[in-house]
Amino acid sequence: MDVQILSEEDVRQIAMEVFRQLHEADSGALLNVDGAAEFLQCSRQTVWALRRRGDIPAVEISPGCYRFRPSDLKAWIANRTGRARTPRQKAAAIMEGAE
């Protein structure tokens, strides 16, 4: 197996190409339910439930036909980071009427 040592400039060029490809992939691409489920690493049923409750942003292409922007899903994830609650915290919120 040949091992090639990359220069700092090579690494910089590779990184810039990866960032460019990621940006292009997210600029206007819409995911269907399967794609959103894969992106969120959950089931299709979970995506539908989140969409029905209005928890995740979706684009309605036509009645009953939804698509999801990767950038919207990333923002939704970032907004929810650190918000996980224990069952006791959830129960307390329900008892206080916050849910």
Outline the structure in words.
Strand 1 (59-62) and strand 2 form a beta hairpin. With 99 residues, the protein is mainly α. The protein has a two-stranded antiparallel sheet with strand order 1-2. It has one domain. The termini are far apart. The chain has helices spanning 8-26, 33-40, 44-52, 70-80, 87-95, and strands at 59-62, 65-67. The chain is built from five helices and two strands; from the N terminus they run αααββαα. 57% of the residues lie in helices and 7% in strands.
Model regions low in confidence, pLDDT < 50 over at least 5 residues: none
Helix content: 55-70%
- Tell me the number of strands: 2
Please describe the biggest sheet, giving its number of strands, its sense, and whether it closes into a barrel. 2 strands, antiparallel
Radius of gyration: 20 Å
Count of domains:
1
Output the keywords:
99 residues; mainly alpha; two-stranded antiparallel ribbon; 5 helices; 7% strand
Quick recap:
The chain has helices spanning 8-26, 33-40, 44-52, 70-80, 87-95; strands spanning 59-62, 65-67.
Topology of this protein?
Elements: H1 8-26, H2 33-40, H3 44-52, E1 59-62, E2 65-67, H4 70-80, H5 87-95
Antiparallel strand pairs: 1-2
Helix pairs in contact: 2-3
